[in-house]
Amino acid sequence: MRTVARMTLTVNGRAWSGEVPDGTTLLDLLRDHATLTGTKYGCGEGQCGSCTVLADDKAVRACLTQASAARAVTTIEGLATGDRLHPVQQAFLDAQAFQCGFCTPGMIMGAVALLARTPRPTDDEIRHALDGHLCRCGTYPRIMRAVRAAGDALARQERRG
Predict the structure, then answer these.
(1) Helix/strand/coil (H, E, C) string of 73-119?
(2) Which residues of the chain have pLDDT under 70?
């Protein structure tokens, strides 16, 4: 018989608490308990990147991360401010960096993590950061353009204060 644990964590800037079975992955907590379905289940083995979220400000594969290991989580739903998209989300839209969109939440979260630590990444740094994020539609050149454009937009925002 599985035991149930009471958990409390911050999800997208808000306190979340609930009961989850021991051993629940962060992906299952987000999708099944917090009803945030933007984070996608892909391979279930951490190989495709579709489930990438920020846990304690680091990009992690939610399908491999135990829910109990995270204190603060940001998902794709937590990036926008009101009606204003996060610069990475806007750049992906502007560059048409997706077709089916299944990989997009994970790609965006991976790019957000990269740009937080490396505001002006080289193409090699972008490729390295997004290595393991699979896009079945093959929009990699557009994804690269989007990440570069997002870095530029974030730099302009920072200069404006």
Answers:
(1) EECHHHCCECCECCHHHHHHHHCCCCCCCCCHHHHHHHHHHHHHHCC
(2) 1
